[in-house]
Amino acid sequence: MQFVDLKAQHDELKHEIDEAIARVIRDSAFIRGPDVDLFEARFAELTGAKHCVSCANGTDAIYIALRALGAGVGDEVITTAHSWIATSETITQTGAKVVFCDTEPDYFCLDPAKLEEKITPQTKGVILVHLYGQPADAEAIADICKHHNLWLIEDSAQAHLARLNGRQVGSFGDISTFSFYPGKNLGAMGDAGAIITNRDDLAEFAALFARHGGKGNHVMEGVCSRMDGLQAAILNVKMPWLALWNSARRGRAKLYGDLLSDAEDVTLPKTRSGAEPVWHLYVIRISDRDALRDHLGRLGIPSGIHYSRALPFYSAYAHLGHEPADFPVAYRHANEILSLPMHPHLTRSDQEQVAQAVRQFVNSGAA
Fold first, then answer.
1. What stretches of 1-156 show up as alpha helix (H) in DSSP?
2. Rounded Cα–Cα distance for residues 2 and 8 (Å)
3. d(CA 58, CA 287)
């Protein structure tokens, strides 16, 4: 059993992927080129955005978005206390100060009820994260940002095509960022990322900034962050399959819910009203998480922890002096969460094996 079975995905599309790679090699279209242009056009259409600007990876996408929105020294940017560090480190890299906000008890995402108390005269914007493929409460957060004249970035790295109240994630803020890391719902065979936006000014800046501030006429100092032609070609093959793969993930999530409904002491993930998650990860909560993970490992069942600490409690942010009481929900979740195997090719027998092992653990009284 695989936690994420990338080989099965590749085998499904091997002929098309091999042809795409061979074409890029034949044409020596390794940097930008027609496959990248096609990717940007198709991904913009798929997400309903006016513009798509590709880049080297999802972390660069956030950094470029922050620079496009003018984040810099003296500014504060609020983001969730529980995410991968790319969401917060990019804020610091602009010279701005990262301000953490606690997460919702049920949905793992930035809590809009805690957001306004974090806003100061120095606050310039907010980065929300659609964590685990679960849409954040983007409508409420966008309303707060609008009321306080703040910009909003949606970190959608784990939420390709997730929807909230009929709208695509990425459509609520000024700009949205995506990662195509291999294990993502839409994954490349290496690093790749993108930005989508409906604002012409942000798209123009992002495209220039990501390519050294403009090729041949450097209107600014930029960075080198380009999606290479091989990754674009691979993503173009996979993109038509994304909706089907997301649907398969929803089916796997439902089956987990059915199989684990009677597992005492296990908190199953909930779905926000009006949300259509894409289940990048299936994350349960249990107080004796580490013991359960050891139990699964002994049975040959892989699992993961995403993420083992809330961001404010990493050494990188020790200078902020935070304590667990500052972010009680994120702190508790980091010690309880466990990601079970989740991918479109997961079989029913695999899921039954996982569920049986979880129930065996809790029924033994070990939890």
1. 6-12, 14-27, 34-47, 58-68, 86-93, 112-115, 138-147
2. 10
3. 32
CATH number of 6-240: 3.40.640.10
Distance CA 151, CA 127 (A): 9
Cα–Cα distance measured from residue 358 to residue 355, given in angstroms and rounded to the nearest whole number: 5
User: What is the residue-level pLDDT of the chain in tens, covering all 367 positions?
Assistant: 999 999 999 999 999 999 999 999 999 999 989 999 999 999 999 999 999 999 999 999 999 999 999 999 999 999 999 999 999 999 999 999 999 999 999 999 999 999 999 999 999 999 999 999 999 999 999 999 999 999 999 999 999 999 999 999 999 999 999 999 999 999 999 999 999 999 999 999 999 999 999 988 899 999 999 999 999 999 999 999 999 999 999 999 999 999 999 999 999 999 999 999 999 999 999 999 999 999 999 999 999 999 999 999 999 999 999 999 999 999 999 999 999 999 999 999 999 999 999 999 998 866 5
pTM over 0.90, yes/no:
yes
| Structure tokens given for 227 | 């999606």
Contacts of 3 (CB under 8 A, 6+ apart): 302, 303, 304, 339, 341, 342, 343
Give CATH 3.90.1150.10 domain extents, the chain: 241-363
Stretch(es) of the chain classified as CATH 3.40.640.10: 6-240
Please report where in the chains the tokens 């810099």 appear, as a residue. 72
Give the span between the Cα atoms of 30 and 33, in whole angstroms.
7
Among 348, 356, 344, smallest CA distance to 9 is for 344
CATH number of 241-363: 3.90.1150.10
Nearest-angstrom CA–CA distance, 333 and 104: 10
